[in-house]
Amino acid sequence: xxxxxxxxxxxxxxxxxxxxxxxxxxxxxxxxxxxxxxxxxxxxxxxxxxxxxxxxxxxxxxxxxxxxxxxxxxxxxxxxxxxxxxxxxxxxxxxxxxxxxxxxxxxxxxxxxxxxxxxxxxxxxxxxxxxxxxxxxxxxxxxxxxxxxxxxxxxxxxxxxxxxxxxxxxxxxxxxxxxxxxxxxxxxxxxxxxxxxxxxxxxxxxxxxxxxxxxxxxxxxxxxxxxxxxxxxxxxxxxxxxxxxxxxxxxxxxxxxxxxxxxxxxxxxxxxxxxxxxxxxxxxxxxxxxxxxxxxxxxxxxxxxxxxxxxxxxxxxxxxxxxxxxxxxxxxxxxxxxxxxxxxxxxxxxxxxxxxxxxxxxxxxxxxxxxxxxxxxxxxxxxxxxxxxxxxxxxxxxxxxxxxxxxxxxxxxxxxxxxxxxxxxxxxxxxxxxxxxxxxxxxxxxxxxxxxxxxxxxxxxxxxxxxxxxxxxxxxxxxxxxxxxxxxxxxxxxxxxxxxxxxxxxxxxxxxxxxxxxxxxxxxxxxxxxxxxxxxxxxxxxxxxxxxxxxxxxxxxxxxxxxxxxxxxxxxxxxxxxxxxxxxxxxxxxxxxxxxxxxxxxxxxxx
Length: 607
Description:
The protein is α/β, with parallel strands linked by helices. Helix content is about 35%, strand content about 15%.
């Protein structure tokens, strides 16, 4: 503490998954930078010594032993720094593995606090490599000896006398998760008249189903003192100051606030009567132009950092994707260009592939080719008609039978080409399929349903349309091409073109309007609305746009396909989470493939 002020710091150093020794190197360097800026306390993210995405590896004694050793190594190597540090790691407690925050200072471990939300352990002692240290949710620590200013790692500690609450986190970034966390903790800081220091894991911690943004902030009695936005390009250190003397007169009545504070990322509306709600036809993204621009920038950052992280880990030299001239692959191409920028590469590291088949139109093929030309992206055309015809002959499929075999054979041939090209060019196949298609199962199993990294997997079709529209308004070179792509009917182009050479197979004619499917998808998955309630809500929002019969028919299609197509979602590739709905079989929707939709369909009939 200098001149009566206490300098606090938070950092999100690069994460090496399941490699505590390398994480210690990053942590020690961060500690030295913080100490050079006069920090008296440094906060690291929740799993700073292991990374948060180790999953089942957290049950491995090998990793747990290495994490404990890394903790002692950090304590020893920073013992000369007159500064407290708070690190996160998994620890074995009474036969269980718990996420813990550990306070380190002067080469010693001063205490350990479990971070699990439902943990209620009383203060006791816990062994770390044979040394017993204080353990429990109610622990508080003084920032400096006899300073009278203490901090806690459980929010109830603010009501028990502590002045500062430290929140080390490992929260998957979505378009608005950081803002929700900031809002929730600002309310806590204001209500308890205390300070809050928050830090999240940074990019690199994981890319399987989500990306971490490394956001951080310091709140002083409800007021922002310092803030670092997610994916900030500045130094990884957040530094801010508070005046401990201003907390001296705050209430220390333990009975002031009894309820447990649990920050929430999503806030589904629980109102029973949807007709009174301010419902929007596009619940996945904000309505106002300025808010949508912020949403779009955040979504692109999440997707591109996730892809860039996967490229780094796999040491891939090339991003390979099928470019059809449709919305999904167009936006995936934009994500690839942003990932190239993050990686310090040129767009020449992207390989876009056009694979015209029986239904490919001149319009879509031309748009794909012209877009690559404008963006200086290599574009390769590999027709698939001859190879698919040979396949038809091999299996005895008539070429004029336009059934599922006719369509799926083309999708699987395209996927085979992309996978083999990725092998040839030391590359990674970037998936282009979106959340709406996954919800409906409108993808070929073993075809466009798989990739090596699906960047659009949590973005609905309606959001992708608006993201491309915003891109068109911002990019003069590509604007006209993107506008024509927006005007092109949505189609997989697997059936032969019509007599005028136009698209004959229009997706929304087959399954219904995506604006309705996305509306149903959001309220079914996020707020748990019943089919009867979904129809009332849709009638309220879309009553002037669609007949009641269209709403009912589309909801029936949604429910039938949503349940019957779960098997395709049970083996989805990795991809970043960008919003409130994810179908990842690892961290998203948990649903059996054999579930029947008849109860939900019956609810429609009874409405």
